[in-house]
Amino acid sequence: MQRKEMVKDEQILIVGAGISGLSTALGLHRLGIRSLVLESSDSLRITGFALTMWTNAWRALDALGIGEYLRTKSVQIHGFQIFSPDSSPPSSENTPQAEVDLGNTEIRCVKRKDLLETLEKELPKGTIRYSSKLVSIEQSDNFKLVHLADGSVIKTKVLIGCDGINSMVAKWLGLQNPVNVGRSAIRGFLSYPNGHGLEAKFHAYFGGGVRYGFLPCDDKSIYWFCTFTPSIFNYDENEQNPLKMKQFVLSNIQNAPKRVSDIVERTELDCISYSPLKFRSPWNILLGHIVHDNVCVVGDAFHPMTPDIGQGGCSALEDSVVLARCLAETLLTKTSGNNKEDGEYVKMEGGLQKYAKERRWRSFSLISTAYIVGMIQESNGKVISFLRKSFLSKYTVGILMRMADFDCGKLKIS
């Protein structure tokens, strides 16, 4: 009896108030459907510095109704400059216009803080419940009982896991744990109070065992990254000293122009981070349970991938729009028959299965492409290095552009 008094009913419960969780909640809200978002921390968790948002992400952001505002907080990237690690002049240069028509191409680097705060502000008050850590999930007929660390229980018809790379919801679905690919990333963010004066281009150094790049978020800030294979450089993966991270990056871009190395040199130590790179096996995406018993996963909980094509956050936004639309199509139609509860359950399951069908192959393609592109761009092998200097750098940028030329559709129901 005491347990029943503690149970709260929710139609749709979302675990995780990151990009995928908040954008899914916003997509549902735009279609008139309420959801509750659980967040384990006591406030909006702003981890990471910035994200490269490609054409597909802007289409999703426009569908969510926040694209125009976020455009005012970022600058349009006009082209790429690909450098060889053993020479300072550009080895090739390519612009988005060379791959995709100008009207369909949009690349900007958005501060993660700006994106999350914008999503939060667009949601109704009370949508996010902070200090709510998921402990376990229990089946109860057509419902899920979600047990939280504070002892409370929430009963829900639909459970959506947006709880990141170590997702408990993904584990409940039986998906395999993400795999460490043997590579790592050091990332940094630098602010210039008086402006940086750099061109709005994506500058990248590929080869020699590293991928280093930087691009502006706006006129006063730069986001940079360096991915590498720790075993090649005898780098201690447990090293958490940002000074040593900075020194490592500088030692591997020492042939770059001074204005390039200055970006890393001037970065404050508390604006440098390190993380090992992981992905979910593409075959697990194809053969595993993305959806089961009205439970599904979104974003990194679904398809964690390496950052080599910049599609982690972009694809999470795609997921959110597609999922909101698929659920709305079922929830906003009347249920016929005597047992409306069972009928509604079947309809929602159908909506989630439609979401899985739309997202499965797209996610498989993104994960596989990112892994291969990273290998090509970072390799220090003689054959790959020669081919990269000859044509592969330009070719891989073209792949990035083609993968970004995707439309998740509008938030409309037929």
UniProtKB/TrEMBL annotation:
Domain FAD-binding per the UniProt entry, residue ranges: 11-331
GO molecular function: FAD binding; monooxygenase activity
Listed transmembrane segments: 12-33
Keyword annotations: Membrane, Monooxygenase, Oxidoreductase, Transmembrane, Transmembrane helix
Keyword Membrane: yes
This protein's record includes keyword DNA-binding: no
Signal peptide positions on this chain: none
Similarity remark: Belongs to the 3-hydroxybenzoate 6-hydroxylase family.
Designated name of the protein: Zeaxanthin epoxidase, chloroplastic-like
Phylogenetic classification of the source organism: Eukaryota, Viridiplantae, Streptophyta, Embryophyta, Tracheophyta
